[in-house]
Structure formats: structure tokens, C-alpha cells
Amino acid sequence: MFFSVGDAAQSIETVTWVLFGGALVIFTGVMLLLAWSLRKRSGALRPRLWVLGGGVVFPAVVLAALFFWLVPRMPAWKPIPPADALIVTVKAHMWWWEVRYRDPATGADVMAANEIRIPVGRPVYFALTSADVIHSFWVPQLAGKMDMLPGRMQHLLVTATEPGTWRGQCAEFCGEQHAQMALHVVGLEPAAFDAWLAAQARPAPAPATQLLLLGRESFLAQRCSACHTVRGVSEEGRLGPDLTHFGSRLHLGAGMLANTPEGRERWLTHIQQIKTGARMPSYDRLEPETLEALGEWLGSLQ
């Protein structure tokens, strides 16, 4: 929440600091009154006056002032997106994030997973829902929490004010791997974002080497395509994340591991140790050459 980079989070940060400052003033005042009362003789004090003033009038005035100060600064409960807003639909699953981009300006409709990229300075309208149980979308530096409910669409309107990478986390207990359900939001300059979105809209690149060709054949032979879509290779899988541009993501496993050759090999061979209960089996039974080819091919999906 601190060092916020989104307009919605900045409102929360301002309110937090005001409340903290008010609490500090009240605490200091109470301590001063306590010290003053200890120096006075009991007959000089008027307990009823202090109880009525400090216990009723003062809290009522402070709470009323805070209420009228806070109301205009709270984010809209049901925000209306500006005409130029980028629409990003995020559907939570146990335990990964499905991400779909819809750009009214270009008509692009792009699928991704576990990582969100947004343009700096442009409103982003998040449409949030769930495929199974209640989850909660929370990227503290961008905005407050929003529950993600099956069969219902919730919304957040966010504008990032500077580039960067910010970690998000499911904030509603959703099962044994709730703590391992993270995601990253990357803020890009508008030109860089447009180039990235155009690249994401393209199908997967063709294998450029024999090793990558073996990796693609292994992906199909092991029936990874039954759960995962790779556009241009196999588009029947809908149970797991879309892997069309898997290699361009910073992390894998919903924020679990860095997307490096070592991370991909560890993920493929030890997924049930890293994320117990995930619906993908560990592939430690594969030959080392097959694992290497599969990991290299996945990494080449830029």
C-alpha cells in the first residue's frame, strides 16, 4: 500500500496517513491529560465533564469530520470506464490467473495468464470473476482488494502513474495453495505496451532449431495440449493457462519461480512438491533430453 503507483491506491494511502496522524494526536493528547491529572489533587478534577467531553463529544466530532472528509475520496463502488480505457478481464482459478485483454481502440482480444501488463497513464478497467471458489484480487500498490466471485463480475478502475513491476496476491483463502497464488503486474510506457500487446496477439513462433522442434513434438506427445492452448500449435486445451507466449513472462506457476531454464526444469519435474494439489502431474519420468527440449521450447514462446 505504501509508495503507491495507482490513483486508487493513492487515495487509500492518503486516508491511511490521515488516520494514523489523527490517532497519534489523540494518543498524545490522552497522555498529556493523564500526566496533568496525576499532578492535580482529586478534588480539582471534574470526572463527569471529562467523561462526557472526552468519551462522547470529542469522538463524535472526530468521527463525523473523518466521515465527511473520506466520502469524496473513496474509489467509486461501481466505476464507469472512460471511453479509452483498456479492458482486462481476470478470472481466478485454483490456483492461477486467466487474463484476457480487450482494447476498444484496436479491437485486439488477447489471452494470457498469471501476469498482467498495463500501460502507464491510461485507465485500465479490470473485470474480475472466479471459475470455482471465492478469490480476491489485490495489488496493494495499485488499488484496494476486490473479491472475485463465481458467476459475478466485479470491477476496479486503475491508472498506473509510473512504470514498474508490482506483486499481487490472492487475498481470500481459496484452498491449500492459497498462499502460492500470486501474480505480477507490469506497468509499461504506452508505446512499449502497444508493441507487447501486438506481439501477444500473434500465434506462437515456429521452432527455429531441431531442439525446439523436439520440444514442440514432446508437448504434443505428452498430451500437454489437452489442458494448455498454444495458438498455432494446439488450441483445444482450456483447463490450464494459455502458454502461447509463455516464454515472455517473468515468472511461472503464478509467481512461484523465475522463468529461467532452471526454473522451468524444476517446475516440470517437481510441480507437486512446489505446488501440491495443482492439476498438473510432475514430469520427472521424462528423459533428460526430452525435458531439456520441452523447457527450451516453452522458453522460446516469446
UniProtKB/TrEMBL annotation:
It holds the Pfam family Cytochrom_C. Residues 210-302 form the Cytochrome c domain. It catalyses: 4 Fe(II)-[cytochrome c] + O2 + 8 H(+)(in) = 4 Fe(III)-[cytochrome c] + 2 H2O + 4 H(+)(out). This is C-type cytochrome. InterPro entries: CcO_II, CcO_II-like_C, Copper_CuA, Cupredoxin, CuRO_CcO_Caa3_II, Cyt_c-like_dom, Cyt_c-like_dom_sf. Belongs to the cytochrome c oxidase subunit 2 family. The chain crosses the membrane at residues 15-37, 49-71. Residues 83-199 form the Cytochrome oxidase subunit II copper A binding domain. Its main location: membrane. The keyword Transmembrane applies. The keyword Heme applies. CDD domains: CuRO_CcO_Caa3_II (cd04213). Keywords: Copper, Electron transport, Heme, Iron, Membrane, Metal-binding, Transmembrane, Transmembrane helix, Transport. It is found in: Membrane; Periplasm.
